[in-house]
Amino acid sequence: MAGPTCGRMLADMGADVIKVEPVTEGDATRGFRPPDLDGESAAFMMLNRNKRGVALDLKSEGGLEVARRLIVRADVLIENHRPGTMERLGLGYDLLSETNPGLIYCEISGFGRTGPMAHLGGFDLISQGYSGIMSVTGEGEGRPPVKCAPPLTDITAGILAAMGILAAYIERLDTGKGQRVDTSLFEAGVIQSFWQAAVTLATGVSPGPLGSAHPLTAPYQAFETSDGWITVGGSNQETWHRLIEIVELPDLAEDPRFRENADRMQHVDELASMLGERFKIRSTAEWLALLEEGGGPAG
């Protein structure tokens, strides 16, 4: 869905996007149902809103000819196949740029156009594993690996591709020349690992899964209340001091275990236990009202 996500973002901003589907069964997301609306997949409609569409058999000369006629007038082409597929169809960048030198040709694949894994196909689940995302989600030792519920690498790859296309378009306004834009699901996963990568590169040790907690600051996690759960962020000194006043634990401000963020991170389990017991004495609604009134980030 990375390619369709990219196209949808451009369509939402006003671009005239034409989606090309195979003539047999159409786009795979047409089969992602239930749920559906009047027989049409809700997933398909979410990914392809604001687009026009055409069905082509790109394995036939007639279908290829129609595709070439569309491409020669296009500003942008977005493709989401394994590397080499478009070249085998006669629709590679080198060939198409001869007839349309202003073409911005965007390629989104599982693992990029180069490197030892370039030939492999990719899905979001696979990319979340390879990129390390699944090594830092979930609840830790003894628990099964957990992926991020939304298709993180698909969506992020689509966003990265749209950014690359817009940058290439700005360049084309000056030069009149198109260019090749390339990203992958694997890159999209790696780019999401800012904090975890910082910890690992600085210490040589991955922070691993932390549930809802943060690898660099505390308190910043979900806590159980008397009737549910609440998320709380006390990730800097100002919000930390607000939080302990709201939960009526002001003495923690001078406790050497919790005075600064570095202290809190060294004693994060003790801090989580103390706050956890405190949050259980009231309902979620009560805590949210108190935190909102006191300016404590929560949800």
From TrEMBL:
One of its GO terms (molecular function) is CoA-transferase activity. The keyword Metal-binding does not apply. Pfam families: CoA_transf_3. Signal peptide: none annotated. SUPFAM superfamilies: CoA-transferase family III (CaiB/BaiF). Keywords: Transferase. InterPro entries: CoA-transferase_III_domain, CoA-Trfase_fam_III, CoA-Trfase_III_dom3_sf, CoA-Trfase_III_dom_1_sf. This is CoA transferase. It comes from marine metagenome.
